[in-house]
Amino acid sequence: MNSWRSWVVFAGAVIVYLTAVTQRTTFGIVGVEATDRFGVSAATLSSVAVVQVATYAALQIPVGVLVDRLGPRVLLIGGATIMALGQVLLAFADDIGLAIAARVLVGTGDAFTFVSVLRLLPNWFSGRILPQLAQWVGMIGATGQLVAAIPFAFLLHAVGWNVAFLIAAGVSLFAVLVGVTVIRTGTRPPMTEEITTSSTWSRLRASVARPGTQLGFWSHLLGGTAPQTMGVLWGYPFLTAALGYDVPTAAAVFSLLVVGAVLPAPLIGYAVASFPFRRGDLVLGMAALVYGALVAVLVWPGQPPLALICVLFFLIGAGAPSSLIGMDYARTLNPSHSVGTASGFVNVGGFLGGFVSMFLIGVVLDIVDSVRVATGQASDLYAWESFRLALLAPVVIALVAVVGVVVTRRRARTVMTRDEGIEITPLWVALFRTRRNGPGGRR
Fold first, then answer.
1. Backbone dihedral region of 42: left (phi > 0), alpha (psi from -120 to 50 degrees) or beta?
2. How far apart are CA 271 and CA 267, in angstroms?
3. Were 254 and a residue from 134, 149, 262, 338 both cysteine, which residue would form a disulfide, CB within 3.0 to 4.6 Å?
4. 401 Cβ neighbours under 8 A, 6+ residues apart
5. Long-range CB contacts (< 8 A, 24+ apart) of 306-314?
6. Residue 95 DSSP label
7. Helix%, strand%, coil% for the chain, nearest 5
8. Would you say the pTM of this structure is higher than 0.90?
């Protein structure tokens, strides 16, 4: 455990995950070009990304079960292979049906990756470093969005659609090579609970029924919806078509999603490891920052200034590491033999919120443009005023997720008090007691 070989395996797993994030994001970079290439509406275009993310989300629970049975190495290699096939198909797709099939393959391969990486970590590491490593995985993997935002965007304009996606497929094949040569499954940690002889379905239901797993799901949904929505599909068209930024400016602003994911990640990992009973407060606090900035952009009179857009994209990026707190709930509040299953369910959260949000944004953009045309105005599908309404979708989803976090956190705390005798007071009460008592005792 925690040896030099552990770090070599960790590096290999992170490379595979970074590649998966790159493949996941590439279609969002070509959103405007895809509208012209396939001759489709905004809602139809969003359905391509929705199908990709829906495939990812739908496979999370089966993947969680598979990773507990087959081990993470098999799934990591298989996932990278499937993503390469998907990108090759997209390179030659000339109609929307083939594009959807290609993104289903990418979503399938992507689904195998993240949960497998998290399931691999306890086989090679132990102690307080584990929650911090989960943040490092997310942080380094987020640079895959940067690869898509800058090199792939310029590559697309330099060599065209076909060659750009073939190069992306080659990157996935490199990840396959890394998985084969570097990654090993390692030794599973000791069982923290006896494995029952019940069916897989029964064990799945038991895992999902745990309040800690449900809390992880809602935490992941709350933190992950905005990064998925803007990172996978609508962020780049929002910058280039709605706000009118040129490619270098849009790529620079889009890259702030990565900067926002990278810079806070070590701090969030440290906070989770040091104050595990305050993870829910951290999730809610980060969400307040993200959606406060989004609402500020939406209510700004006229087009918002570039500085505010930069702040928004940085904070949306910061939502990604906060969503990983949900995965830490799955790891710590489930027996070790079902961590993969619980992690798969939790990982559905942010992607479910993301694909619902992406689809609703496309629908609203089409409706607003139809009304515009019906009133005698020229069609402007990606107008800023249309996005001003469409981007209310992730705000509504976030409000639902906040309710879910608050309710399931209360249930999880009740179970901890009953089973372990641990009573967690509300944050404001803890802060009041700290201020009243001080470091030297009661005053």
1. alpha
2. 6
3. 149
4. 218, 221, 222, 225, 287, 349, 353
5. 306/249, 306/253, 309/239, 309/243, 309/253, 310/253, 310/256, 313/230, 313/235, 313/253, 313/254, 313/256, 313/257, 313/260, 314/256, 314/257, 314/259, 314/260
6. S
7. 85, 0, 15
8. no
Q: Over range 29-35, report the average pLDDT.
A: 77
- Rounded to an integer, what is the distance from CA 89 to the centroid of its chain? 24
pLDDT in tens, 74-119: 999 999 999 999 999 999 988 888 989 999 999 999 999 988 998 8
Give the burial class of 424: count Cβ atoms within 10 A of its Cβ; 0-12 exposed, 13-18 middle, 19 or more buried. middle
CA distance 366 to 381: 7
In terms of Cα–Cα distance, which of 307, 255, 351 is closest to 53?
Answer: 351
Cβ-in-10-Å burial (0-12, 13-18, 19+) of 283 comes to: buried
Q: CA-to-CA distance for 101 and 84, rounded, in angstroms?
A: 13
* CA-based torsion, 270, 276, 279, 282: positive or negative: negative
Angle between helices 306-323 and 247-254 (to 10 degrees): 40
Q: CA-CA distance, 421 to 320, in Å (whole number)? A: 32
Structure tokens at 91: 């390179």
Cβ distance 34 to 48 under 8 Å? yes
